[in-house]
């Protein structure tokens, strides 16, 4: 029988070894790295009230573990508490014994019991978590852009290098930005402590009246062993609160064209390429008939509604696009029985309420994974219907359903966990 519980500080050292073996591409076994990880795990477990390490034991032996995160997320301007999980790791000698499955089951139940109806994770395998009911999030796009392709700003420059003295200003800027972006998670002062831990990570900020209103964090990466001046600039984070800040930060990237080969940036902004003069990535690939390759994309963050009724109750003050309708959702959730089956939701001028009566206008049948992507605004009801992933009893109501869950923008996330 398995027991899952919070790990003691002493047990974390054993989990570091399991975690290192599970992710050899991330960690290594050098004494320096192992000691650094142990210290990092200890500090997190003892000092961060929103993050905890849990372990799974059988016969008093630690076989695997995970890191649980409590986040506050902006859901279309409504702040809600959500859960995240990271470092899901299993002892190499006990793989294929259901350890990971039990850990994820515990993770889901843990946040259900804490009235957090939505959870997230970064998958090591998309299909593994799709089967567990996690739905796809917004795609991440990687651009490799010539600096000269960024627009040049001709006005008064208000840029400067930021230092540790600006830590609180950077955190405030990030959280103000997050409060305007669907899907973003707020950051805490504990997270801000890591801003300047990497000596190779530089910050340039747009500062007005001692207030940071936008910033870039970036590193340089040498692209040639024989030419020290052949470098790329890798953007880690790009935050801006207004167009002025964005333009000046773009202009900073433009001004690096004499020394930088390409600017490498990852973004979930599907319109990022519009202000660029030449967004092509240098591969010179053409897609039929004549479409120039500008970026590559990937799927990462996945969402899961772990309590459908709780989801609508938590968002009782949220306006679902002024829709008025009575809908019976039939949710298929093979992983969480309590979350499976019919649920009646009345929408009155966009305000949702879960009801017990059987009076409804139409029925929507959908798997919990696709439902999670739908309610987050990652995908439309129409797209799910056209792909056979959603059934509706009255096709004439598809437009109503489509409008119900549409968001002004797809959810974006800059939090790694």
Features:
11 helices, 7-stranded mixed sheet, 26% helix, alpha+beta, 3 domains, Aminopeptidase, Nonspecific Lipid-transfer Protein, Chain A, 417 residues
Would you write up a description of this structure?
- By secondary structure, this protein is α+β, with helices and mostly antiparallel strands.
- The chain folds into three domains: 2-116, Gcn5-related N-acetyltransferase (GNAT) (Aminopeptidase, 3-Layer(aba) Sandwich); 141-298, Gcn5-related N-acetyltransferase (GNAT) (Aminopeptidase, 3-Layer(aba) Sandwich); 308-404, Nonspecific Lipid-transfer Protein, Chain A (2-Layer Sandwich), CATH 3.30.1050.10.
- Helix content is 26%, strand content 32%.
- It has eleven helices and 21 strands.
- It has helices at 9-22, 31-47, 99-113, 126-130, 167-178, 189-192, 243-254, 308-314, 368-376, 381-386, 398-404, and strands at 2-6, 51-58, 61-75, 78-90, 118-121, 135-136, 140-145, 159-161, 202-208, 211-222, 231-240, 260-267, 286-287, 291-292, 295-298, 302-305, 325-332, 341-348, 351-355, 362-367, 390-392.
- The chain has a seven-stranded mixed sheet, sandwiched between helices.
- The longest helix is centred in the first third of the chain and has 17 residues, at 31-47.
- It starts with a strand and ends in a 13-residue tail after the last helix.
- The model has no long low-confidence stretch (mean pLDDT 96).
Distance between the termini: 29 Å
Helix-strand category: alpha+beta
How confident is the prediction overall: mean pLDDT?
96
DSSP, total strands = 21
**CATH class type of the largest domain:** Alpha Beta
Number of helical stretches of at least 4 residues: 11
CATH architecture of the largest domain: 3-Layer(aba) Sandwich
Name the beta content range.
25-35%
Largest sheet: 7 strands, mixed
* Order of the strands making up the biggest sheet: 1-2-3-4-5-16-6
CATH superfamily of the largest domain: Gcn5-related N-acetyltransferase (GNAT)
Please state the CA-atom Rg, rounded to the nearest Å.
23 Å
The percentage helix is: 25-40%
Spans of at least 5 consecutive residues whose pLDDT stays below 50 are: none
Oligomer: single chain
